[in-house]
Amino acid sequence: MAMGRFSFCLPYTLREEGGESNDPRDPGGYTNKGVTQSRYDQYRSAGRMPRQSVSRISDTELEDLYRRCYWDAVNGEKLRPGEDLSAFDFAVNSGPTRARSALAKASVGSPPIATVIENIANIRLSFLHALGTWGAFGKGWGARVARIEAASLKMASAPIAPHAAAAKARQKANATAAKRSAAAAPVGAAGAQHFLESPLWVAALVFVAMIAATAVVAYAAWRQSQRAEALGDAAAAQATAVDQLLTTSVAQVAVGQAKS
């Protein structure tokens, strides 16, 4: 069976998944190359093969499992370049059903491919941030989403630099908002006095609301910082590739003129 673009997208996800892992904080348990033992058991059983440790999964099985369980599940071959990687990696990380739903939401109004990719990344991060394991794995998840977004934009032949600049601008705006939120209330002696004279439960609610608002904007700033860094690196690589292509083209033209 022809693999199509699956063979182009798989290495990106495998690089993110890494090798063997058995972190007690991960509800998925023992994992090898992104495949949990339970998922591997299902795959082997469906193929009428005896179960074995996922540490023994072959490269052929690995590719077949990823294609059948994740790539085909999001109709990868029917998606546009870049859009396919974003949906596929989301499916591997958080499940095909959630990835399909995110793709549908990201595509409402038929926006440009770059916007669809950005929307998927934002939906993905919102979901991950709500998980109880965010504290343990959030930093790595955030970096992964940003790298996949950058790679997807590159696949879509979308200019990455504007997205990196926009992320940097949003990071700055969110960081400023976080500082203002932290210092917003009570302000001044009159504000402090009013705060202290309020009923205890009112003061507690105000304080909790202030902390929550600060945490939200601080997280937004951190998320945009990761995104800006990943997109900035990708934009630099993209510019270097263009420069190399131009240099090669100029050299080829010069050689052709010399021969003539």
UniProtKB/TrEMBL annotation:
<dbReference type="InterPro" id="IPR008565">
    <property type="entry name" value="TtsA-like_GH18_dom"/>
</dbReference>
<keyword id="KW-1133">Transmembrane helix</keyword>
<feature type="compositionally biased region" description="Basic and acidic residues">
    <location>
        <begin position="16"/>
        <end position="26"/>
    </location>
</feature>
<feature type="domain" description="TtsA-like Glycoside hydrolase family 108">
    <location>
        <begin position="12"/>
        <end position="95"/>
    </location>
</feature>
<keyword id="KW-0812">Transmembrane</keyword>
<feature type="region of interest" description="Disordered">
    <location>
        <begin position="16"/>
        <end position="37"/>
    </location>
</feature>
<feature type="transmembrane region" description="Helical">
    <location>
        <begin position="200"/>
        <end position="222"/>
    </location>
</feature>
<keyword id="KW-0472">Membrane</keyword>
<dbReference type="InterPro" id="IPR023346">
    <property type="entry name" value="Lysozyme-like_dom_sf"/>
</dbReference>
<protein>
    <recommendedName>
        <fullName>TtsA-like Glycoside hydrolase family 108 domain-containing protein</fullName>
    </recommendedName>
</protein>
<dbReference type="Pfam" id="PF05838">
    <property type="entry name" value="Glyco_hydro_108"/>
</dbReference>
